Amino acid sequence: MVRSENTYATAVVLIPPLEAWAPIQELRSRHDRHYHRWMPHVTLLYPFRPREEFAARAEQFAAVCADRAPFTITLSRFDFFFHGRESYTLWLAPEPKNAIVQLQAALQRVVPECSDVWRYPGGFTPHLSVGQARGHTAKVNMLAALQRSWQPLSVQMTEISLIWRGEPPDDVFRVGLTIPLGR
């Protein structure tokens, strides 16, 4: 059997319920250059396996997800990643993060070759990206403005989604499969 490689055209994510999107998307439409490509999400596995493997992986993930009840996260605090060269990604911190970290670790045990999100110095950091900033001052100002205007949002996470995108110009992520949390 020929093993295919992980691809940046697929991911496993948590997507907030549609009724919670409006305030998130309002921020992202102004600050996130990836607004049109990605829906609001918390990444669990990326890059992931080719889309042709979704059905087989979904069966494996279903057992993992069945043992985890749906959980509520609150998006109230902003933070950032520094990428070097004065480049920053700003994001909302889902709290508490333990349920997400545990879910991600269990999914990664199914596909250990999809460990990229753990390769950062701080390990896996659950986050929902809302934008980018260039320069320290711009980052500080944007974080302060976002925090000042943001109303905390609590959402229930009830499923994971396996998402995919095509090649440009059709490179918008779509949900391929969802797997419910809990029995």
Mind sketching the topology for me?
Elements lengths: L9 E5 L6 H11 L10 E4 L8 H13 L4 E14 L2 E9 L2 H13 L17 E7 L1 H14 L3 E5 L1 E6 L9 E7 L3
Helix pairs in contact: 2-3
Please explain how this structure is put together.
It contains four helices and eight strands, in the order E-H-E-H-E-E-H-E-H-E-E-E. A hairpin with a 2-residue loop joins strand 3 and strand 4 (87-95). The N and C termini lie far apart (33 Å). It has 183 residues and is α+β, with helices and mostly antiparallel strands.
Give the strand order, joined by hyphens, for the main sheet.
2-1-7-8
How many strand segments? Answer: 8
Order of helices and strands: EHEHEEHEHEEE
Strand content: 25-35%
Task: Give the overall silhouette.
Answer: globular
Q: Cα-atom Rg, whole angstroms?
A: 16 Å
Query: Which residues form runs of ≥5 with pLDDT under 50?
Result: none
Regarding quaternary structure, what we see is single chain
Summarize the structure.
Helix content is 28%, strand content 31%. It has helices at residues 21-31, 54-66, 98-110, 136-149, and strands spanning 10-14, 42-45, 71-84, 87-95, 128-134, 153-157, 159-164, 174-180. It is globular, with a radius of gyration of 16 Å.
